[in-house]
Amino acid sequence: MGQRARLFIDFWNFQLAWNEHLSSTRQCDWPKLPARFVSEGQSVIASAGIVEPLQLEETRVYASYNPSRSEGTKLRGWLSNFLDRQPSFRVFATERKDKSAGFYCRACRQEFLDCPSCATPLVRSREKGVDTAIVTDMLSLAWEAAFDVAILVSSDADMIPCVERVQEKGFKVINAMWPKRGHDLAKACWASFDIMAVAGSLVRPGP
């Protein structure tokens, strides 16, 4: 009997690191990712002397988008019309909203709400709720005994308490990590593997 594996992917945490290490022009072939990551997880488990095979149950992707921006609506369409329809994938997408991002200059004691150059209002768009959703789902699925191994694709240290709690219940968490990122999270997990070791095989072929 195999071990059930579920992937938990922080989309922007993964995508921004991918762009940094491989450039945004070399796009990730997302449908290939689950099998490749489960294979790496299998290798890690086998190195510990565990021979039971990993069986992919589900790939959960947590993303956010800004509907007021064209790139945000384009991303939302790709997430729902493409990625969410791929085998094993389940996408959870939340909206981001622009908020005022004025700044205060201590030197001249002036507050700027608009760009000094073009007078466009200064705004910022914050990702909200993604980390909480991953933590909530990982804990609830663990308590339901819905997996044996969680492969967590994130470098966020805020995940550490969740990982520790899940592992206290006897489940394994394997961290898929990027070089020079998230060492504290990787150390808290049962095991980890370097995404760069497999990234080349995930590059989508050009036209």
Number of E-state strands: 10
Give the DSSP E fraction (strand runs of 2 or more residues): 25-35%
Q: What is the average of the pLDDT values? A: 88
Which second-level CATH architecture applies?
3-Layer(aba) Sandwich
Biggest β-sheet description: 6 strands, parallel
Query: What is the assigned CATH homologous superfamily?
Result: 5'-nuclease
What is the first-to-last residue Cα distance?
A: 41 Å
The CATH topology: Rossmann fold
What does this structure look like?
This protein is an alpha/beta fold and 207 residues long. The chain has one domain (3-98, 127-202): 3-Layer(aba) Sandwich (Rossmann fold), CATH 3.40.50.1010. It has helices at 11-22, 33-47, 70-81, 130-143, 160-168, 183-188, 196-199; strands at 3-10, 54-65, 89-95, 98-100, 103-105, 110-112, 123-125, 149-153, 172-177, 191-194. The strands form three sheets. A six-stranded parallel sheet has the order 3-2-1-8-9-10. A two-stranded antiparallel sheet has the order 4-7. A two-stranded antiparallel ribbon has the order 5-6. A hairpin with a 4-residue loop joins strand 5 (103-105) and strand 6. Helix 4 packs parallel to helix 5 (160-168). The radius of gyration is 19 Å and the shape is globular.
